[in-house]
Amino acid sequence: MARRSRARYLAPIALAATIAGTYVVVHQGLTHKKSAPPHAATTHKARRKVRGTFYRVQPGDNLTSIAAKTGIAVATLEALNPHIDPNALQTSQRIRLRR
Question: DSSP readout, 19-86?
Fold first, then answer.
């Protein structure tokens, strides 16, 4: 009987290990993300936060985080700023908070 190559047995095991590892990494990445609410609800406390007419975008900000900081709904921010792209906010960009 001819001696069989180790690769014949190790290749399926390596493939299964790669698939399992990929699944674990992807699953962990999906479950550890903080999910943002679809729209920011304004509360009485949050409404008092708004002081100025404009907000300067900070590093890492998005419309949802700005809405949470200022107490203004995301839909209102989008309506007041039709010229901005919510997916491409720039640091120190001015966003209108009220008319």
Answer: HHHHHHHHHHHHHSSPPPPSSPPP-HHHHTT--SSEEEPPTT--HHHHHHHHT--HHHHHHH-TTS-T
